[in-house]
Design a protein that fits this description.
With 70 residues, this protein is mostly helical. It has 2 helices and no strands.
Amino acid sequence: MGLKYDRGRLVSLFIVVMMFVSVGGVALASYNKIVHPGPVEQGLSAFIVSALCGLLMLILSTTELYESIE
């Protein structure tokens, strides 16, 4: 379409989108927990998914930082 995006800009956009998705997921889970209280049943799986998303964002932001230094 005539628009050119460099890799750094796409990585930045992906990181921002992932942060908003993570915040949205946490907000939705918190709201559901407040409305429907009960025992925590999926604590480990939720932690693993959140940790993987956080690790992915950390790796991408570190890669972007090193590319901007060069």
